[in-house]
Design a protein that fits this description.
It is a single chain. By secondary structure, the chain is an alpha+beta fold. It has one domain: Winged helix-like DNA-binding domain superfamily/Winged helix DNA-binding domain (Arc Repressor Mutant, subunit A), CATH 1.10.10.10. It has three helices and two strands; from the N terminus they run αββαα. It has a two-stranded antiparallel ribbon. A hairpin with a 2-residue loop joins β1 (9-12) and β2 (15-18). The two termini are 20 Å apart. The mean pLDDT is 79.
């Protein structure tokens, strides 16, 4: 739950997935499926930085 709250993981129908934020935290390039995805929104719909 903590990593989901911090925006590093997201829940999907297929299970948990690392977000673009998690990939960037480790200095890695996100896979193409995440590279074009919009940034995650916070609780109030604002884009996180």
């Amino acid at each position: 739950p903590y990593l989901i709250q911090q925006g590093f993981l997201m829940r999907t129908p297929r299970g948990r997935m690392a977000t673009r934020r998690a990939w960037e935290h480790f200095g890695l390039s996100p896979p193409p499926s995440l590279a074009d995805a919009p940034q995650e929104l916070d609780l109030f719909g604002r884009q996180e930085s």
